[in-house]
Amino acid sequence: MAVMEGPLMSGSVQEIVEVKKIWQQDERTLGIQWTDGKESLYDVVELRRQCPCALCVDETSRERKFKPEDIPQSVRPTVIESVGRYAMSIQFSDGHRTGIYSFRLLRELG
Amino acid sequence: VGLFGNSKRDEALREQVLEQLKTVQDPDLHRDLVSLGFIKDLTVKGGKVAFTVELTTPACPAKEQLQQECEAAVKALDGVSRVEITMSSQSLAGAATRVANEVDQPALARVERIIAIASGKGGVGKSTTTVNLAYALSQSGAKVGILDADIYGPSIPQMTGAGKPTHMDENDHIIPPQVDDIKIISAEMFAQQNQAQMFRGPMVAQIVRQLLTQVAWGELDYLLIDYPPGTGDIQLTLSQVAPITGAVAITTPQEVALLDVRKAIQMFQTMNVPLLGVIETMSYFVCDSCEKQHELFPRGGGGRLAEEFGVPLLAEVPLDPRLAQSADAGTVLVKTEPDALGAKALRQASERMVREQAKVHAQTEGAMTHFRLEWQ
Question: CB–CB of B372 and A80 under 8 A?
Fold first, then answer.
């Protein structure tokens, strides 16, 4: 059987993965330890570039509305906060605050 | 005896040390140091106990207090001659790390489990099921609350005879009225008599948020949320504001109902909410003159749905006229006629739901339900 990654629930197995610990690793790295033991590190500038919100991604074409280089290297989160038990919102220093990053997306990225 | 005897004693002492350390709580995280995983490198040798307490931040204001508490707790044990405690903090890759704390949502802080009762469409007996499940849980000794989130057509007050809330607590949180020890809050309690509920989306989100966070829920083992049918604003807000522990899907046996309930289940999957099981209502009809189970719809839809999602069918609840009659009369069948077929099925559903919830819970042991991290 194929190994299922991420908080997926399908077929006969419900795989639920949540955040066990979350921390600021260094000046631009976010660390997350998941309930299944996996640890992920994220470059926060890359997270800003991957923002899944409707302002950043065209809802019909699914295309990103900006180029990676449009996001300056200097961008940082200001506040990261849980949303329900499936996601977290990240507010960025460039004023962008509508991104809701699902654990599923984060597991794909990290 | 020699070495073997000693190591056995040490082994037993080690267990006792861990038990003692479980009495020491992190004042911020409100959990004990052992379950937080803060105790590292525990060694016990001939009565000498050594371990490291690894805190989340070196600047932990409670560091000294925790060290003293740990020392006192371990020294209280018989057979401990010396205690050596090293206080440290997590520093991955040598960088300054900052760990998010669990943030309290005061109103929900002491609510152990929040369970969504959902259906794809209306009229499948979802509210009746919710109320009877609540009573079944309460009968088994649990502290239970019901949040009637069906803003557009709230019916729980009528079904239970719950009055309106009259008091606020010291935090300006509404104290929910209780019926048979069950705390009940419904949008209907805040509406004008006989007035249709008309709200625009953003208002709905606001109302639902308040029902969750501005109510003095206090200590609850289970908070059941009667979800409005469908997959819209209300459902989304509920799942974003509250850390929903699990969902139960209610459906009738017909395929049409199943299409809708599938969408509701998929919404929960997107929100990472585990599905605890399916309850099929109106499974069959037993009239009062014969014992035959009359099937009103092709049988087995709920079972197929449960199989498809790999979850248990919690119960097949018959169409029991007494279920509807008791709901209209503001009484609850599980309480008034516990031996009725409908009541038995719903009690079974509640027992299975509890077991399933415990299983799912084991998977996400140690998860943070609320967190907030401020970047430095």
Answer: yes
Q: What is the DSSP letter of B147?
A: E
* β-sheet bridge partners, residue A30: A24, A42
Angle at A51 (CA atoms; ends A46, A56), nearest 5 degrees: 125
Between chain A and chain B, how many beta carbons pairs sit less than 8 Å apart?
129
pLDDT of the residue at B110: 86
ipTM: 0.86
Give kind and range of the element (H or E) at residue B206.
Answer: helix B201-213
Q: How confident is the model at residue B51 (pLDDT cuts 50, 70, 90)?
A: very high
Which residue, chain included where needed, has tokens 């819209």?
Answer: B232
Question: Which two tokens mark A24?
Answer: 């600021």
Distance in angstroms (rounded) separating the CA atoms of residues B269 and B266: 5
Enter the tokens of residue A65: 């509305």
> Residues 93..132 of B with a Cβ closer than 8 Å to A: which?
93, 95-100, 103
Distances in Å between the Cα of B62 and the Cα atoms of A47, A52, B59 are: 33, 39, 9
Kindly give, in sequence order, each residue whose CB lies less than 8 Å from that of residue B351, ignoring residues fewer than 6 positions away.
Answer: B136, B140
CB contact under 8 A, A82 and B375: no
Cα separation, B319 vs B281, whole angstroms: 7
Cβ atoms B182, B145 nearer than 8 A: yes
